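Hey team,

Filing this mostly as a record. A colleague (T.K.) asked me to run one chain through the structure pipeline before their review meeting, and I want the input and output archived in the tracker in case anyone asks later how it was produced. No errors, nothing strange. Just documentation.

Input sequence:
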Amino acid sequence: MTIPQDPDLCIDLHCHSTASDGALSPAALVERAAGHGVSHLSLTDHDTVAGLAEAESAARECGVVLIPGVELSCLWKSRTIHIVGLDFDPEAPDFRRALQGQNENRWARARMIAERLGKLGIDDLLGKATEVAGGDVPGRPHFAAVLTEAGVVRNAAQAFKRYLGNGKTGDVKAYWPELSEVVRWINEAGGIAVLAHPRKYQLTATKLRELTADFRRAGGRAIEVSTSGQSSGDLGFLAELCRKEKLLASQGSDFHFPGAPWCELGRIMKMPDGLEPVWHSFRQPILRPAPV
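Output structure:
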């Protein structure tokens, strides 16, 4: 069961808006987070900080503290891994250039997906997917929406099953930088690199321990111990891994769209005791309010 972390201190450090593959605009996302009792939020769109300015404006209106965030794709032993960056300087010039490179990789991937799905006969597939993405780089969920609207499939699930899922025609692997390079970008921008949703990579326990150790050696400082869709067994395993590697502990819903009760803003399994929260190491540490 997922529960709010704390009635006065509800922290969600992983979610997505229409700036990448989320369903809500940055402002609507922040408003929803506030409505669910979130006090501190990090918008972590994929390989972009394009939504941060809008989110920051909404956060001021809603009384939510917004922490700069991003989710970066990288490679570890030829596997795609996601690293969340938290509390960095979004205006750091080298970091902005790195994000531009990631953006170009995503556009190249989107063009390839559209090309591969060209046999389906949908006019201007890339343009329509881009429109669904709000003018930003379309990902597979946006292509799925276009396929559904065109009547090629009944719904997004069928789109992934037939055309966009792993190993299907539209499953295009992008070129991503190595894990150590992405961690360096975040560190040099003054942020904290977090290994995102470790149990979603379908790695064996041995491989996951190896990944976590390599991540720490590269300069990574935290691991997502609590995120949506994981079991209590996963929670315990990740807590143990966090302690062993002497990493900070992070948490986040990985929210993408409304209507999924297992993945809602601010509703995350409570982290086990004895872990050092990543937010204690922010430039402005988040601490529980003192009792009145």
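Quick notes for T.K.: The radius of gyration is 19 Å. The first strand starts at residue 3 and ends at 4.
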